[in-house]
Amino acid sequence: MDAARVGAKVMVKTRAFELLRKNGVPCGVSAMRMGEPLQIEAPLIIGADGVESKVGRWAGIDTALKPKDIHCCAQFLVQDSTIDDEYCEFFFGNKMAPGGYIWAFPKGDKLANVGIGVQGSKSGSGVPVRLLKEFMKSHFPNGKVVEMVVGGDPSSGVIESATADGIMLVGDAAHQTDPITGGGILNAMKAGIIAGEVAVKAISNGNLSKAGLKEYEDRWRADMGKHIARSFEYKEFFVKLTDNDLNQLIGSLKNEDISKMDLRGMLRVLFKLNPKLLWELRHLVV
Ligand SMILES: Cc1cc2nc3c(=O)[nH]c(=O)nc-3n(C[C@H](O)[C@H](O)[C@H](O)COP(=O)(O)OP(=O)(O)OC[C@H]3O[C@@H](n4cnc5c(N)ncnc54)[C@H](O)[C@@H]3O)c2cc1C
């Protein structure tokens, strides 16, 4: 909305299907708008086209994800009088959500996003929706599902390159999601701001090559790269834990006040309480 307010041209129902090139350098996209083909010229293209970005692939960037590095998600918007509007809830278990977790994030007025992420290598056709329905039966038996979304979420760690000549990738397209939580909205917005600022400079100084866009790579990596890399290591470790391990970890927090802990703080406390189980992670915690 803000972009539209300050003069950006917004085109809905418009799907890009290939890059336009001049002398081999991207200079826009070919697109379809409600059945009508059109060409959109642009000196610089910011690919914010989500998981396994096609814009990136067209530009020669490897945006593919291994099954173990993508989470298959389903989410219901649920109305239920039993929803606790004050707390986010998380549910873990290798049968309940293999290699992932189930969440219930309240939105107020007894509405919550209730969703599941299942590690791609442990998922299959229809699995996330089936598991989420089973969860609904046991936890919100009277809950009314008023909306549903499904989608993939990168959990791969840092992408090798998020730029090419005339191209910057942001958000899920650039695998900027946090691999341990699956949260990607904040990072996508931060990367979008950085990409916008770098785009202004690159266009005004006329250097739209990959080298000219290096500031974007440097800034997003400095801002979130380390955090994503660390979360990836956590993810690689936690997806191997048994239900007994998970019960031990959660049980160890019973005398801790977790209401004020962020994820990193909680991991630090978990390490202190379970050094043997979490020994492999010591280099990340200290
Ligand atoms: C079920 C589910 C729940 C989630 N919950 C949370 C949460 O609670 N908090 C959080 O932080 N993150 C959450 N995430 C992750 C979050 O949604 C993503 O990280 C975030 O949306 C990434 O934003 P993005 O703009 O990069 O990509 P997207 O939101 O995927 O947007 C990409 C857009 O590009 C469009 N597009 C794709 N290809 C083309 C094309 N060829 N031409 C034109 N347009 C194209 C798509 O239609 C889409 O609108 C969730 C993900 C899922 C699947």
3D architecture notes:
The structure is a single chain. The radius of gyration is 21 Å and the shape is globular. The model has no long low-confidence stretch (mean pLDDT 96). With 286 residues, the protein is α+β, with helices and mostly antiparallel strands. The longest helix has 25 residues. Strands 6-7-8-5-9 form a 5-stranded antiparallel β-sheet, covered by helices on one side. A 3-stranded antiparallel β-sheet has the order 1-2-3. It has a 3-stranded mixed β-sheet with strand order 4-11-10. It has 8 helices and 11 strands. It has 3 domains: 143 residues, 3-Layer(bba) Sandwich (FAD/NAD(P)-binding domain), CATH 3.50.50.60; 88 residues, 2-Layer Sandwich (D-Amino Acid Oxidase, Chain A, domain 2); 45 residues, no CATH class. The site of flavin-adenine dinucleotide has 23 residues, from strand 1, strand 5, strand 9 and helix 4.
* Class derived from helix and strand content: alpha+beta
- The CATH superfamily of the largest domain appears as FAD/NAD(P)-binding domain
**How far is it from the N-terminal to the C-terminal residue, by CA?**
43 Å
The helix fraction, in percent, is 25-40%
Shape: globular
Could you tell me the mean pLDDT?
96
Residue windows where pLDDT falls under 50 for at least 5 positions: none
Trace the largest sheet across and list its strands: 6-7-8-5-9
Largest sheet: 5 strands, antiparallel
Task: Tally the structural domains.
Answer: 3
CATH architecture classification of the largest domain: 3-Layer(bba) Sandwich
Ligand catalogue: flavin-adenine dinucleotide
Radius of gyration: 21 Å
Number-wise, the strands total 11
As for the CATH topology of the largest domain, it is: FAD/NAD(P)-binding domain
